[in-house]
Specification:
With about 120 residues, the protein is an alpha+beta fold. The protein has two domains: about 70 residues, no CATH class; about 45 residues. Strands 1-5-4 form a three-stranded mixed beta sheet, with no helix packed on it. A two-stranded antiparallel sheet has the order 2-3. About 5% of the residues are buried.
Length: about 120
C-alpha cells in the first residue's frame, strides 16, 4: 500500500501524523511528554507520532476524571446503562461503516456485500 493510501486509511480512523495522547474530554487533547513513534513493520517508515502525558497532563486528567465521576454517579443506573449501550452501538456502527468503505475500495465489492463482510 503506498503512503498516500495508508495516510488516507489512518485519517479515516482519526489518526493524524502527529497526535496528542492525553484526552480530557471531547476535543480536549493534550500531550506534553515525550513522543512515541509508531512504525510500519513492513518498511520501517513512521506511521504516526503520539505525544505522551507530562506530569501536568496527568494532574489534569485526574482532576477531570474526578469531576466526571461525581457527576456520573448522580445519574440513575438505568439511564447510565442506556447511555453505555447507545455509545457502544454507535462506535460499532461507525467503525463497521469505515471498514466497509475501505474494504469496498480495495475489492470492488458492492456496498451491501462489503458491509456484510465487515459485520462478521
Amino acid at each position: 500500500m503506498d503512503q498516500d493510501k495508508l495516510r488516507a486509511l489512518l485519517e479515516a480512523f482519526g489518526i493524524a501524523a502527529e497526535n496528542k495522547g492525553v484526552c480530557l474530554g471531547p476535543g480536549q487533547w493534550r500531550g506534553g511528554g515525550a513522543a512515541i513513534v509508531s512504525t510500519n513493520p513492513a518498511n520501517e517508515k513512521p506511521l504516526a507520532r503520539i505525544a505522551t502525558a507530562s506530569a501536568d497532563d496527568l494532574a489534569a486528567v485526574i482532576a477531570t476524571a474526578t469531576t466526571a465521576a461525581h457527576a456520573w454517579r448522580d445519574v440513575p443506573a438505568p439511564q447510565r446503562g442506556e447511555a453505555v449501550r447507545r455509545f457502544g452501538d454507535l462506535r460499532c456502527a461507525n467503525t463497521r461503516t469505515r471498514w466497509a468503505r475501505w474494504y469496498r475500495s480495495r475489492t470492488a465489492r458492492s456496498k451491501p456485500k462489503a458491509t456484510a463482510k465487515c459485520r462478521r
